[in-house]
Amino acid sequence: MNKRKFYAALLIFSLTGQVAWVVENMYFNVFIYKMFRASASDISLMVQASAVAATLTTIFIGALSDRLQKRKIFMCAGYIAWGISIIAFALVRLDVISSLFGTAVNAAAAAITIVIILDCVMTFFGSSANDAAYNAWLTDRTDETNRGAAEGLNSMMPLVAILVVFGGFMGFDLDKASSWTWIYCIIGAAVLLIGVLGFFLVEDAPGKKPDELGYMGTILYGFRPSVIRRNRDLYVTLLFFVVFGIAIQVFMPYLIIYYEKTLGMSNYVLIMAPAIIFAAAVTALYGRLIDRIGFVRTVFPSLGMLILGFLLLFLFPAVIRTKGAGMMIPVFIGSLLMLSGYLSGMAVFGTKIRNETPEHMAGRFQGLRIIAQVLIPGVIGPAIGAAVLKNADVIVNSDGTTSFLPSNAVFLTALIITALLAAAMAAVLLVGKEKKAG
User: Fold this and answer.
1) pTM (2 decimals)?
2) What are phi and psi of 293, to 5 degrees?
3) What is the rounded distance in angstroms from the CA atom of residue 205 to the CA atom of residue 303?
4) Which end of the chain has fewer CB atoms within 10 angstroms, the N or the C?
5) In sequence order, what are the residues at sequence separation of 6 or more whose Cβ sits closer than 8 angstroms to the Cβ of residue 92?
6) pLDDT tens-place string over residues 163-184
7) Tell me: the pLDDT tens digits for 23-80?
Protein backbone atom coordinates (compact mmCIF):
# COMPACT_ATOMS: atom_id res chain seq x y z
CA MET A 1 0.00 0.00 0.00
CA ASN A 2 1.24 3.48 -0.88
CA LYS A 3 2.73 5.10 2.25
CA ARG A 4 1.03 8.43 1.68
CA LYS A 5 -2.28 6.72 1.06
CA PHE A 6 -1.88 4.69 4.25
CA TYR A 7 -1.19 7.73 6.42
CA ALA A 8 -4.00 9.68 4.77
CA ALA A 9 -6.41 6.85 5.61
CA LEU A 10 -5.00 6.60 9.14
CA LEU A 11 -5.39 10.32 9.80
CA ILE A 12 -8.87 10.88 8.40
CA PHE A 13 -10.44 7.67 9.74
CA SER A 14 -8.81 8.11 13.13
CA LEU A 15 -9.63 11.82 13.44
CA THR A 16 -13.22 11.53 12.22
CA GLY A 17 -13.84 8.50 14.41
CA GLN A 18 -12.41 10.26 17.44
CA VAL A 19 -14.52 13.37 16.75
CA ALA A 20 -17.58 11.12 16.88
CA TRP A 21 -16.32 9.42 20.07
CA VAL A 22 -15.62 12.81 21.68
CA VAL A 23 -19.20 13.86 20.98
CA GLU A 24 -20.37 10.63 22.59
CA ASN A 25 -17.92 10.37 25.51
CA MET A 26 -17.77 14.04 26.51
CA TYR A 27 -20.77 15.81 25.00
CA PHE A 28 -23.60 13.31 25.31
CA ASN A 29 -23.07 13.80 29.04
CA VAL A 30 -23.32 17.56 28.59
CA PHE A 31 -26.34 17.08 26.29
CA ILE A 32 -28.45 15.12 28.79
CA TYR A 33 -27.14 17.25 31.68
CA LYS A 34 -28.19 20.54 30.05
CA MET A 35 -31.26 19.46 28.10
CA PHE A 36 -32.81 16.89 30.47
CA ARG A 37 -31.18 17.57 33.88
CA ALA A 38 -29.51 14.17 34.07
CA SER A 39 -27.97 13.02 37.35
CA ALA A 40 -24.51 11.53 37.92
CA SER A 41 -26.21 8.10 38.03
CA ASP A 42 -27.84 8.73 34.64
CA ILE A 43 -24.49 9.66 33.13
CA SER A 44 -22.82 6.63 34.72
CA LEU A 45 -25.56 4.32 33.35
CA MET A 46 -25.16 5.72 29.83
CA VAL A 47 -21.39 5.23 29.87
CA GLN A 48 -21.77 1.68 31.22
CA ALA A 49 -24.43 0.69 28.67
CA SER A 50 -22.31 2.05 25.84
CA ALA A 51 -19.27 0.17 27.14
CA VAL A 52 -21.15 -3.12 27.10
CA ALA A 53 -22.47 -2.44 23.58
CA ALA A 54 -18.98 -1.53 22.33
CA THR A 55 -17.44 -4.68 23.80
CA LEU A 56 -19.98 -7.15 22.43
CA THR A 57 -19.88 -5.49 19.02
CA THR A 58 -16.09 -5.54 18.83
CA ILE A 59 -15.88 -9.18 19.88
CA PHE A 60 -18.37 -10.40 17.26
CA ILE A 61 -17.49 -8.05 14.39
CA GLY A 62 -13.75 -8.33 15.01
CA ALA A 63 -13.94 -12.11 14.78
CA LEU A 64 -16.08 -11.86 11.64
CA SER A 65 -13.55 -9.56 9.97
CA ASP A 66 -10.85 -12.13 10.81
CA ARG A 67 -12.88 -14.92 9.26
CA LEU A 68 -13.48 -12.91 6.09
CA GLN A 69 -10.00 -11.32 6.15
CA LYS A 70 -11.75 -8.07 5.22
CA ARG A 71 -11.52 -4.80 7.13
CA LYS A 72 -12.38 -2.25 4.43
CA ILE A 73 -16.06 -3.07 4.04
CA PHE A 74 -16.66 -2.94 7.79
CA MET A 75 -14.77 0.35 8.06
CA CYS A 76 -16.50 2.13 5.18
CA ALA A 77 -20.04 0.80 5.51
CA GLY A 78 -19.75 1.13 9.28
CA TYR A 79 -18.80 4.80 9.10
CA ILE A 80 -21.76 5.49 6.81
CA ALA A 81 -24.20 3.82 9.22
CA TRP A 82 -22.43 5.48 12.15
CA GLY A 83 -23.00 8.90 10.62
CA ILE A 84 -26.69 8.22 10.06
CA SER A 85 -27.14 7.10 13.68
CA ILE A 86 -25.51 10.32 14.94
CA ILE A 87 -27.88 12.41 12.83
CA ALA A 88 -30.77 10.55 14.49
CA PHE A 89 -29.95 12.29 17.80
CA ALA A 90 -31.18 15.55 16.26
CA LEU A 91 -34.71 14.17 16.74
CA VAL A 92 -34.29 13.81 20.52
CA ARG A 93 -35.77 17.15 21.59
CA LEU A 94 -37.81 17.95 24.68
CA ASP A 95 -40.54 19.72 22.69
CA VAL A 96 -40.99 16.64 20.49
CA ILE A 97 -40.93 14.16 23.38
CA SER A 98 -43.24 16.31 25.56
CA SER A 99 -46.02 15.87 23.02
CA LEU A 100 -45.77 12.12 23.58
CA PHE A 101 -45.15 11.90 27.33
CA GLY A 102 -47.05 14.88 28.72
CA THR A 103 -45.30 16.58 31.64
CA ALA A 104 -41.80 17.95 31.32
CA VAL A 105 -40.54 15.64 34.09
CA ASN A 106 -41.82 12.54 32.31
CA ALA A 107 -40.53 13.83 28.98
CA ALA A 108 -37.06 14.47 30.45
CA ALA A 109 -36.90 10.97 31.94
CA ALA A 110 -38.08 9.47 28.64
CA ALA A 111 -35.53 11.54 26.71
CA ILE A 112 -32.69 10.26 28.89
CA THR A 113 -33.83 6.69 28.28
CA ILE A 114 -34.08 7.29 24.53
CA VAL A 115 -30.59 8.82 24.44
CA ILE A 116 -29.13 5.82 26.28
CA ILE A 117 -30.78 3.36 23.88
CA LEU A 118 -29.82 5.38 20.80
CA ASP A 119 -26.30 5.69 22.17
CA CYS A 120 -26.06 1.88 22.23
CA VAL A 121 -27.28 1.71 18.62
CA MET A 122 -24.75 4.34 17.56
CA THR A 123 -22.04 2.50 19.49
CA PHE A 124 -22.81 -0.71 17.57
CA PHE A 125 -22.07 0.98 14.25
CA GLY A 126 -19.14 2.98 15.61
CA SER A 127 -17.49 -0.01 17.27
CA SER A 128 -17.99 -2.16 14.17
CA ALA A 129 -16.28 0.46 12.03
CA ASN A 130 -13.66 1.84 14.40
CA ASP A 131 -12.96 -0.43 17.37
CA ALA A 132 -13.16 -3.70 15.44
CA ALA A 133 -12.31 -2.98 11.80
CA TYR A 134 -10.16 0.17 11.80
CA ASN A 135 -7.98 -0.96 14.72
CA ALA A 136 -7.47 -4.41 13.19
CA TRP A 137 -6.62 -2.76 9.85
CA LEU A 138 -4.05 -0.51 11.58
CA THR A 139 -2.43 -3.55 13.21
CA ASP A 140 -2.39 -5.39 9.86
CA ARG A 141 -0.76 -2.46 8.11
CA THR A 142 2.06 -1.79 10.60
CA ASP A 143 4.92 -3.73 12.16
CA GLU A 144 7.41 -3.29 15.01
CA THR A 145 9.52 -0.85 12.98
CA ASN A 146 6.78 1.78 12.57
CA ARG A 147 3.99 0.81 14.95
CA GLY A 148 4.96 3.28 17.66
CA ALA A 149 5.01 6.17 15.18
CA ALA A 150 1.64 5.16 13.75
CA GLU A 151 0.21 4.61 17.23
CA GLY A 152 1.53 8.00 18.32
CA LEU A 153 -0.46 9.65 15.53
CA ASN A 154 -3.46 7.46 16.28
CA SER A 155 -3.32 8.20 20.00
CA MET A 156 -3.02 11.97 19.56
CA MET A 157 -6.24 12.04 17.56
CA PRO A 158 -8.54 12.06 20.62
CA LEU A 159 -6.89 15.31 21.68
CA VAL A 160 -7.04 16.79 18.19
CA ALA A 161 -10.67 15.71 18.06
CA ILE A 162 -11.36 17.46 21.37
CA LEU A 163 -9.81 20.61 19.92
CA VAL A 164 -11.88 20.32 16.75
CA VAL A 165 -15.08 19.75 18.73
CA PHE A 166 -14.31 22.49 21.27
CA GLY A 167 -13.53 24.95 18.48
CA GLY A 168 -16.50 23.90 16.40
CA PHE A 169 -18.89 24.11 19.35
CA MET A 170 -17.76 27.61 20.37
CA GLY A 171 -20.29 29.18 18.06
CA PHE A 172 -23.18 27.21 19.56
CA ASP A 173 -25.17 27.95 22.69
CA LEU A 174 -25.32 24.49 24.26
CA ASP A 175 -28.27 25.53 26.41
CA LYS A 176 -30.43 25.65 23.26
CA ALA A 177 -31.91 22.52 21.68
CA SER A 178 -31.46 23.94 18.18
CA SER A 179 -27.68 24.02 18.70
CA TRP A 180 -27.61 20.30 19.42
CA THR A 181 -29.67 19.64 16.28
CA TRP A 182 -27.03 21.38 14.16
CA ILE A 183 -24.16 19.67 15.97
CA TYR A 184 -25.53 16.18 15.40
CA CYS A 185 -26.32 16.86 11.76
CA ILE A 186 -22.86 18.30 11.05
CA ILE A 187 -20.89 15.58 12.87
CA GLY A 188 -23.08 12.80 11.46
CA ALA A 189 -22.71 14.08 7.90
CA ALA A 190 -18.91 14.29 8.28
CA VAL A 191 -18.64 10.70 9.53
CA LEU A 192 -20.92 9.49 6.72
CA LEU A 193 -18.84 11.23 4.04
CA ILE A 194 -15.59 9.73 5.37
CA GLY A 195 -17.17 6.30 5.05
CA VAL A 196 -17.87 7.00 1.38
CA LEU A 197 -14.34 8.35 0.83
CA GLY A 198 -12.89 5.22 2.41
CA PHE A 199 -14.06 3.06 -0.49
CA PHE A 200 -11.52 4.93 -2.66
CA LEU A 201 -8.75 5.25 -0.07
CA VAL A 202 -8.53 2.16 2.14
CA GLU A 203 -6.82 -1.05 1.02
CA ASP A 204 -7.05 -4.36 2.88
CA ALA A 205 -3.84 -6.09 3.87
CA PRO A 206 -2.99 -9.27 1.91
CA GLY A 207 -5.39 -11.94 3.09
CA LYS A 208 -4.61 -15.22 4.75
CA LYS A 209 -6.62 -18.41 4.40
CA PRO A 210 -9.01 -18.61 7.39
CA ASP A 211 -8.16 -21.28 9.94
CA GLU A 212 -10.50 -24.14 10.78
CA LEU A 213 -11.76 -22.73 14.06
CA GLY A 214 -15.14 -21.64 12.72
CA TYR A 215 -16.84 -18.38 13.67
CA MET A 216 -17.55 -19.20 17.33
CA GLY A 217 -14.09 -20.69 17.70
CA THR A 218 -12.63 -17.44 16.39
CA ILE A 219 -14.73 -15.43 18.87
CA LEU A 220 -13.62 -17.57 21.81
CA TYR A 221 -10.00 -17.94 20.67
CA GLY A 222 -8.57 -15.19 22.86
CA PHE A 223 -10.26 -16.61 25.98
CA ARG A 224 -8.60 -20.04 25.73
CA PRO A 225 -6.19 -20.85 28.62
CA SER A 226 -3.63 -22.22 26.14
CA VAL A 227 -3.70 -18.97 24.16
CA ILE A 228 -3.32 -16.94 27.36
CA ARG A 229 -0.29 -18.99 28.38
CA ARG A 230 1.33 -18.57 24.93
CA ASN A 231 0.76 -14.81 24.94
CA ARG A 232 1.42 -13.96 28.59
CA ASP A 233 2.89 -10.51 27.89
CA LEU A 234 -0.19 -9.49 25.91
CA TYR A 235 -2.57 -10.40 28.72
CA VAL A 236 -0.43 -8.80 31.43
CA THR A 237 -0.38 -5.59 29.37
CA LEU A 238 -4.17 -5.77 28.94
CA LEU A 239 -4.55 -6.14 32.70
CA PHE A 240 -2.46 -3.02 33.31
CA PHE A 241 -4.45 -1.22 30.61
CA VAL A 242 -7.67 -2.02 32.50
CA VAL A 243 -6.49 -0.20 35.60
CA PHE A 244 -5.23 2.73 33.51
CA GLY A 245 -8.65 3.01 31.86
CA ILE A 246 -10.50 2.86 35.21
CA ALA A 247 -8.48 5.85 36.46
CA ILE A 248 -9.40 7.83 33.33
CA GLN A 249 -13.11 6.96 33.46
CA VAL A 250 -13.42 8.06 37.11
CA PHE A 251 -13.24 11.71 36.01
CA MET A 252 -13.61 11.89 32.22
CA PRO A 253 -17.45 11.71 32.03
CA TYR A 254 -17.64 14.76 34.30
CA LEU A 255 -14.66 16.78 33.02
CA ILE A 256 -16.41 19.41 30.90
CA ILE A 257 -19.17 19.87 33.48
CA TYR A 258 -16.44 20.35 36.12
CA TYR A 259 -14.66 22.99 34.07
CA GLU A 260 -17.79 24.90 33.12
CA LYS A 261 -20.03 24.57 36.18
CA THR A 262 -17.80 23.85 39.17
CA LEU A 263 -14.85 26.04 38.19
CA GLY A 264 -17.03 28.61 36.45
CA MET A 265 -14.78 28.56 33.36
CA SER A 266 -17.21 29.81 30.73
CA ASN A 267 -14.19 30.29 28.44
CA TYR A 268 -12.73 26.84 29.12
CA VAL A 269 -12.34 26.22 25.37
CA LEU A 270 -9.83 29.06 25.00
CA ILE A 271 -7.93 27.90 28.08
CA MET A 272 -7.90 24.23 27.10
CA ALA A 273 -6.97 24.71 23.44
CA PRO A 274 -3.25 25.44 24.06
CA ALA A 275 -3.05 22.51 26.48
CA ILE A 276 -4.62 20.22 23.90
CA ILE A 277 -2.28 21.37 21.11
CA PHE A 278 0.80 20.88 23.30
CA ALA A 279 -0.36 17.48 24.56
CA ALA A 280 -1.09 16.33 21.00
CA ALA A 281 2.44 17.29 19.94
CA VAL A 282 3.89 15.46 22.94
CA THR A 283 1.92 12.34 22.04
CA ALA A 284 3.03 12.37 18.38
CA LEU A 285 6.70 12.67 19.40
CA TYR A 286 6.24 10.11 22.16
CA GLY A 287 5.14 7.53 19.63
CA ARG A 288 8.53 7.68 17.89
CA LEU A 289 10.23 7.39 21.26
CA ILE A 290 8.34 4.15 21.96
CA ASP A 291 9.80 2.59 18.79
CA ARG A 292 13.31 3.61 19.90
CA ILE A 293 13.45 2.76 23.62
CA GLY A 294 10.53 0.41 24.21
CA PHE A 295 7.58 -0.04 26.55
CA VAL A 296 9.17 -0.08 30.01
CA ARG A 297 11.17 3.14 29.53
CA THR A 298 8.18 5.08 28.20
CA VAL A 299 5.25 3.87 30.29
CA PHE A 300 6.43 5.23 33.64
CA PRO A 301 7.06 8.81 32.45
CA SER A 302 3.55 8.88 30.95
CA LEU A 303 2.05 7.70 34.26
CA GLY A 304 4.17 10.30 36.08
CA MET A 305 2.74 13.11 33.92
CA LEU A 306 -0.76 11.81 34.58
CA ILE A 307 -0.22 11.72 38.37
CA LEU A 308 1.19 15.26 38.43
CA GLY A 309 -1.74 16.49 36.39
CA PHE A 310 -4.24 14.89 38.77
CA LEU A 311 -2.39 16.38 41.75
CA LEU A 312 -2.62 19.93 40.40
CA LEU A 313 -6.26 19.55 39.40
CA PHE A 314 -7.04 18.27 42.90
CA LEU A 315 -5.11 20.98 44.74
CA PHE A 316 -6.80 23.85 42.89
CA PRO A 317 -10.56 23.26 43.12
CA ALA A 318 -13.44 25.70 42.60
CA VAL A 319 -11.62 28.88 43.61
CA ILE A 320 -11.38 30.74 40.32
CA ARG A 321 -14.47 32.81 40.97
CA THR A 322 -13.28 33.88 44.43
CA LYS A 323 -9.52 34.29 43.86
CA GLY A 324 -9.43 35.56 40.31
CA ALA A 325 -8.32 34.44 36.88
CA GLY A 326 -4.78 33.76 38.12
CA MET A 327 -6.02 30.50 39.58
CA MET A 328 -6.60 29.29 36.03
CA ILE A 329 -2.84 28.90 35.52
CA PRO A 330 -2.39 25.81 37.77
CA VAL A 331 -5.62 24.37 36.34
CA PHE A 332 -4.20 24.88 32.85
CA ILE A 333 -0.87 23.25 33.77
CA GLY A 334 -2.67 20.38 35.51
CA SER A 335 -4.88 19.85 32.47
CA LEU A 336 -1.85 19.92 30.17
CA LEU A 337 -0.03 17.28 32.22
CA MET A 338 -3.17 15.18 32.61
CA LEU A 339 -3.90 15.20 28.87
CA SER A 340 -0.26 14.56 27.95
CA GLY A 341 -0.03 11.64 30.37
CA TYR A 342 -3.35 10.23 29.27
CA LEU A 343 -2.64 10.27 25.52
CA SER A 344 1.03 9.25 25.74
CA GLY A 345 -0.09 6.41 28.02
CA MET A 346 -2.65 5.37 25.43
CA ALA A 347 0.10 5.34 22.79
CA VAL A 348 2.44 3.25 24.96
CA PHE A 349 -0.18 0.66 25.88
CA GLY A 350 -1.63 0.63 22.36
CA THR A 351 1.77 -0.02 20.77
CA LYS A 352 2.61 -2.80 23.22
CA ILE A 353 -0.75 -4.49 22.66
CA ARG A 354 -0.35 -4.35 18.86
CA ASN A 355 3.22 -5.68 19.09
CA GLU A 356 2.09 -8.62 21.23
CA THR A 357 -0.94 -9.46 19.03
CA PRO A 358 -0.34 -12.65 16.96
CA GLU A 359 0.00 -11.96 13.24
CA HIS A 360 -3.16 -12.20 11.09
CA MET A 361 -5.29 -12.44 14.24
CA ALA A 362 -5.85 -8.76 14.95
CA GLY A 363 -9.63 -8.95 14.55
CA ARG A 364 -10.25 -11.64 17.15
CA PHE A 365 -8.04 -9.85 19.68
CA GLN A 366 -9.83 -6.50 19.28
CA GLY A 367 -12.56 -7.81 21.55
CA LEU A 368 -10.02 -8.38 24.32
CA ARG A 369 -8.59 -4.91 23.75
CA ILE A 370 -12.02 -3.32 24.00
CA ILE A 371 -12.78 -5.28 27.18
CA ALA A 372 -9.62 -3.77 28.67
CA GLN A 373 -10.05 -0.29 27.20
CA VAL A 374 -13.81 0.22 27.27
CA LEU A 375 -15.91 -2.42 29.05
CA ILE A 376 -14.27 -2.84 32.43
CA PRO A 377 -13.13 0.80 32.76
CA GLY A 378 -16.48 2.01 31.37
CA VAL A 379 -18.43 0.05 33.97
CA ILE A 380 -16.18 0.45 37.01
CA GLY A 381 -14.72 3.94 36.45
CA PRO A 382 -17.96 5.96 36.15
CA ALA A 383 -19.48 3.97 39.02
CA ILE A 384 -16.55 4.97 41.23
CA GLY A 385 -16.92 8.56 40.04
CA ALA A 386 -20.66 8.56 40.74
CA ALA A 387 -20.03 7.13 44.23
CA VAL A 388 -17.44 9.85 44.93
CA LEU A 389 -19.93 12.49 43.76
CA LYS A 390 -22.89 10.99 45.63
CA ASN A 391 -23.09 13.92 48.04
CA ALA A 392 -21.86 16.57 45.62
CA ASP A 393 -23.10 20.15 45.85
CA VAL A 394 -26.13 21.07 43.74
CA ILE A 395 -27.25 24.21 41.97
CA VAL A 396 -30.77 25.38 41.20
CA ASN A 397 -31.41 25.97 37.51
CA SER A 398 -33.52 28.79 36.08
CA ASP A 399 -36.46 26.41 35.61
CA GLY A 400 -36.41 25.33 39.27
CA THR A 401 -34.72 21.97 38.68
CA THR A 402 -31.40 21.09 40.29
CA SER A 403 -28.11 19.79 38.90
CA PHE A 404 -25.08 18.33 40.65
CA LEU A 405 -21.63 19.94 40.66
CA PRO A 406 -18.69 17.53 40.16
CA SER A 407 -15.96 18.05 42.75
CA ASN A 408 -12.17 17.81 42.58
CA ALA A 409 -12.41 14.54 44.56
CA VAL A 410 -12.62 12.62 41.27
CA PHE A 411 -9.03 13.68 40.49
CA LEU A 412 -7.75 12.49 43.86
CA THR A 413 -9.45 9.14 43.30
CA ALA A 414 -7.93 8.86 39.82
CA LEU A 415 -4.51 9.79 41.24
CA ILE A 416 -4.67 7.01 43.84
CA ILE A 417 -5.63 4.41 41.21
CA THR A 418 -2.82 5.55 38.87
CA ALA A 419 -0.24 5.52 41.67
CA LEU A 420 -1.25 1.96 42.59
CA LEU A 421 -0.95 0.98 38.93
CA ALA A 422 2.56 2.45 38.70
CA ALA A 423 3.62 0.59 41.84
CA ALA A 424 2.19 -2.71 40.57
CA MET A 425 3.85 -2.29 37.17
CA ALA A 426 7.18 -1.48 38.78
CA ALA A 427 6.94 -4.65 40.85
CA VAL A 428 5.98 -6.85 37.90
CA LEU A 429 8.14 -5.33 35.13
CA LEU A 430 11.23 -4.02 36.87
CA VAL A 431 11.58 -6.65 39.61
CA GLY A 432 10.76 -9.39 37.12
CA LYS A 433 13.45 -8.06 34.76
CA GLU A 434 16.04 -8.13 37.55
CA LYS A 435 15.20 -11.73 38.38
CA LYS A 436 15.66 -12.74 34.74
CA ALA A 437 18.99 -10.91 34.62
CA GLY A 438 20.09 -12.71 37.80
Assistant:
1) 0.74
2) -115, -5
3) 34
4) C
5) 111, 114, 115, 118
6) 788 778 778 888 888 999 999 9
7) 887 788 888 888 888 887 888 889 889 988 988 998 899 888 888 888 899 999 999 9
